[in-house]
Write a structure and sequence with these properties.
mainly alpha, Serine Threonine Protein Phosphatase 5, Tetratricopeptide repeat, 18 helices, 64% helix
Length: 387
């Protein structure tokens, strides 16, 4: 037995349209019935009343707009779908040019494409332009190739000032929206700290999966819109998470992948303008270079990070890593000088580490580096060591 059709299925829409056409109903009547029966938005109802797909509708809207000098619209199926959903979630508001071209394509009035929700969300300036369109008595349906309607003249005087204010208010409403709040940002940083701490003791593969998942959440938020300071905080979170993934990747023996994560982390630090994050990223890249036996690169990363003005213990670790690189090259004096700078950095520490865990250099970690310095060690630490 076949499963029952869902309300508004293609088969039901087609059946309704055909029966109404046979009954002599106009397209406008079919659109009204589509809305009533299937709870469609106005623009979607008109499309289905014509029996068009999203792409067919996009092509017709684009063609109709070509007859309006200066009002060309490049529509596609995805954009039409977003216009139909507006002002709901995952939608996009159609501009006046799109609405006029849509009305021409559907052979209806612009007002027929707007319900109360649409009108409430439409800027006042756009509503005033729509209201200047022909009334029922004046409106004559025409094909998409009909002569273009003369453009509405620009307002002057008081109307011009009011329209400019409406446009600014509309922009401000857009700019004020944010897809993340301060509490959410605080939670993201807390979860990042937990991962950095857990990595010192827990299974690296399990931690890798959790870190990757959190990074993806941050990346998704960055694809949206937020205040500049919130974007900066998200870039900082993303930078630390990519840095964690770089550290984990190198410990799992995937040095090329670790380098890729390091470059992504560095980009985040640059976009955030965050010196402390930048220094920790360079520390991570120094560590990866050591394991890849690129000792000169490791030294350069460490020195570059040490040139940043930072708080916490990152300067200590960077000096230790420089010493590690010199030690591998057999440069005893340079290694000892770097360890001396590490001791000086320890005495000069100000503030706490933002993240901690793997992104902190406790005294025991510093001593581990010192013990590996000249006389030169013959065998390196195990890959899993966080030091």
């Amino acid at each position: 037995m076949n499963a029952p059709m869902k309300p508004g299925s293609k088969a039901q829409r087609d059946a309704l349209r055909h029966s109404m056409i046979i009954a002599g109903c106009a397209v406008a009547d079919i659109a009204v019935e589509m809305r009533a029966r299937f709870r469609m938005r106005p623009r979607e109802a008109w499309r289905h009343a014509h029996g068009w797909t999203l792409q067919e509708t996009a092509d017709r809207i684009t063609e109709a707009s070509n007859g309006r000098p200066g009002e060309a619209v490049a529509a596609d199926a995805s954009l039409v779908g977003k216009w139909e959903k507006w002002p709901g979630p995952s939608s996009r508001r159609p501009g006046l040019s799109a609405l006029f071209a849509m009305a021409d394509a559907f052979e209806c009035r612009v007002e027929d494409l707007l319900d109360l929700d649409d009108r409430s969300a439409l800027p006042d300036a756009d509503l005033r332009v729509v209201s200047r369109r022909p009334t029922d008595a004046e409106h004559v349906p025409h094909a998409v190739t009909a002569s273009p309607v003369a453009p509405v003249p620009e307002p002057t005087g008081t109307d011009l000032v009011r329209r400019a204010a409406d446009e600014s208010a509309t922009w401000a409403q857009w700019a004020e929206a944010s897809n993340v709040g301060d509490i959410a940002l605080e939670q993201l940083m807390a979860e990042t700290r937990a991962l950095a701490s857990d990595y010192l003791t827990l299974d690296p593969v399990e931690l890798f999966v959790r870190t990757r998942s959190l990074r993806d959440r941050v990346f998704k938020l960055l694809e949206g819109r937020q205040y500049p300071r919130q974007s900066t905080d998200l870039f900082v979170s993303a930078g630390y998470l990519c840095g964690l993934l770089a550290w984990m990747s190198s410990d799992l023996g995937q040095l090329r992948d670790a380098d890729t994560q390091g470059r992504a982390a560095w980009l985040c630090a640059e976009l955030a303008g965050h010196n402390v994050l930048g220094a920790w990223v360079l520390s991570t890249r120094s560590k990866v270079a050591i394991w890849d036996r690129r000792f000169r690169d490791a030294i350069n990363y460490a020195r570059r990070g040490a040139s940043y003005r930072t708080t916490g213990t990152v300067a200590v670790l960077l000096a230790c890593q420089e010493a590690d690189g010199w030690s591998e090259l057999g440069a005893r004096d340079e290694a000892l000088a770097a360890l001396a700078r590490a001791a000086e950095a320890r005495d000069a520490i100000t503030g706490e580490d933002d993240i901690g865990g793997i992104f902190a250099c406790q005294p025991a970690r510093q001593e581990n580096y010192a013990s590996a310095a000249p006389p030169m060690h013959c065998e390196r630490r195990t890959m899993r060591s966080p030091f």
